[in-house]
Write a structure and sequence with these properties.
This protein is α/β, with parallel strands linked by helices and 188 residues long. Helix content is 46%, strand content 22%. The longest helix has 20 residues, at 131-150.
Amino acid sequence: MIITLSGITGVGKSYFKRCIIRALNFKNIIIITTRKKRRGERHGLDKYFLTEEQFQRLQKNGTISVAFEFLGNKYAYYTKDLLQTENSITELHYDTVKEFKKVAKDVISIYIKPMNIEVAKKQLKKRKLPKDVEITRLTEIEEQVIEFEKNKDLQQEFDYVFYNDYTKESTEKMLEFINDRIKEAMFC
């Protein structure tokens, strides 16, 4: 089973992913990107950071899938990671869920919504991004919220919507929810 977590910047995707990996022993599916490493990020653990040329080479030889651009950078996944059968998890840009499900099998897609959008914005600001990037990402938050609320087709691409109120209870609910999906899969 592959769990995908989508939602606006600052909604807790990375946080929930780490919790699920630790508590439920899920494997992390690492995304590939041409984006520059942020402070504290590690190649091969947080993301695979590639040059544009390396990315193009992998794309040309069919090694990667679900390629997309976001804020001027390219992203994709190693196809082999999407075809494996271990319990795995990844963060997924919200508008790539349909493409992801075409390649990966046994996917449960979760869209995470903040109970309070202002908390998500504060979470983004904690990242200490360059000011121009922060402004772009804050604008993107507003646009994504509107897009998701208006676009019923997009909403239907997701199997579940989960509300994060940034409390310990939200974390416990997420872990319980994933654990229930594991149990359901065992009985199918």
